[in-house]
Design goal:
Distance between the termini: 50 Å
Strand order of the largest sheet: 3-4-5
Mean pLDDT: 94
Number of helices: 11
Shape: globular
Radius of gyration: 21 Å
Structural class: alpha+beta
Strand content: 5-15%
Largest sheet: 3 strands, antiparallel
């Protein structure tokens, strides 16, 4: 990966920014924003990068300039073909999958695009079975404007607005063509359109000719295959946890109740990655499956049903944001939602939590038995629960 890096995670950028902002907010160490960073890549142009590298040139940027470059590039639009496109970086990808296009909608503030033949978010399973005809097909492409990325963008803008006011972030806008777009304007555009763009109301029930739930939020907006927009997935929990201000309170509460009923079972450690009513739903992950079953061969169901643990932490944080735990029995109620995790940690040889499980918490042989983000997100939820409890006293 270090020798042949690729742009294969459009969400990594926003999680990187969230990590920086979380660090600043928790430690109050604003000096990190002006710290100098040695850049691994000297240019966005591949030939130019290697030419500069061969001459021994180096490039440094301050962290706040890197942050601003990320925002400005997304505002200007991103269009490129992955470096070293082909079997060197992906033996399964269809040729068109290496072309990446992202564009800011000035009407909504959403960042649209991706590629429906690429896997550009954490749900990154690429089919690889010739026998089952899923080779080169993403299990969950999620192009368009995935809900959690919109929320992470809003979270970033909200915090940078405050940093700029306090004097430790020197920028307050990006340029789009010849026009300035302030962070406040960009943030307001997202706020104003969010419910209209993402919430599936009774009015949308017959909008497309496929079964879908009402009273929940779209997984993405503007996907190439419109059916993908209407799939109930747990990514909305991430959006609620990082940018709860985007959501109508009653809609969010109703949605979370549907999520709990549909995506969480009695013995679950994680949360189902797809609605059991969806025709692509498979509750298990079997990477060794070599049948001709399109939905399961070579582990195609990785993010289409198996229960991922990290995102359960965001489900808990979403419940905290919208006060869904009993105020009178707060700790007992919260603890009941993590009792499976406590039992697992106490009995597990790693004293840890896995990457994922099969349906209803059943063990999955192809899951990492101890994964950092599974533990980290549960710890973050615990931290938020303790802070919430303090505010109730």
């Amino acid at each position: 990966a270090a020798r042949n890096p690729r742009y294969n995670a459009r969400d990594a950028t926003w999680w990187f920014l969230k990590a920086i902002i979380d660090y600043v907010n928790i430690t109050n160490d604003t000096s990190i924003l002006s710290a100098e960073v040695n850049m691994a890549f000297l240019s966005d142009n591949q030939d130019e990068h290697y030419a500069l590298l061969s001459r021994g040139e180096k490039r440094k940027m301050k962290l706040f300039d890197i942050i601003q470059t990320i925002l400005q590039q997304h505002a200007s639009g991103i269009k490129f073909r992955e470096w070293n496109a082909g079997v060197k970086i992906d033996s399964q990808m269809q040729w068109i999958g290496f072309d990446i296009v992202l564009k800011l909608s000035l009407e909504t503030g959403l960042i649209m695009g991706g590629n429906f033949r690429n896997c550009l978010t954490w749900m990154d399973k690429m089919g690889s079975s010739q026998k089952a005809n899923n080779a080169g097909i993403p299990g969950s492409p999620r192009d368009g404007a995935p809900i959690e990325l919109t929320a992470l963008l809003k979270f970033t803008l909200t915090n940078l607005i405050e940093y700029n006011k306090k004097g430790f972030y020197p920028y307050d806008k990006v340029t789009v063509g010849s026009t300035n777009l302030t962070f406040v304007q960009w943030s307001n555009k997202i706020q104003d359109c969010f419910e209209r763009q993402y919430f599936i109301s009774e009015l949308h029930r017959n909008e497309i000719g496929i079964p879908h739930r009402k009273g929940v939020y779209r997984d993405t907006v503007g996907a190439t295959d419109e059916k993908d927009c209407y799939k109930l997935r747990p990514n909305l929990c991430v959006a609620m946890s990082v940018a709860p201000e985007l959501f109508d309170r009653e809609h969010a509460i109703g949605c979370l109740k549907i999520v709990q009923d549909a995506l969480v079972q009695e013995r679950s450690l994680g949360i189902k990655t797809l609605d059991p009513k969806d025709p692509m739903y498979i509750p298990y992950y079997d990477n060794a499956n070599d049948t001709n079953n399109f939905k399961v061969a070579h582990g195609f169901s990785y993010h289409n049903g198996p229960e991922w643990v990290w995102i359960y932490g965001h489900f808990l944080m979403a419940m905290l944001r919208f006060d869904l735990f009993s105020k009178s029995q707060f700790l007992a109620d919260f603890s009941s939602h993590v009792s499976n995790h406590m039992r697992h940690v106490e009995s597990n040889e790693w004293c840890s939590l896995p990457e994922l499980t099969n349906g209803n918490g059943d063990s999955c042989w192809f899951s990492n038995p101890t994964q950092a983000w599974s533990v980290a997100c549960l710890l973050e939820a615990y931290h938020d629960a303790v802070e919430k409890k303090k505010s109730l006293n």
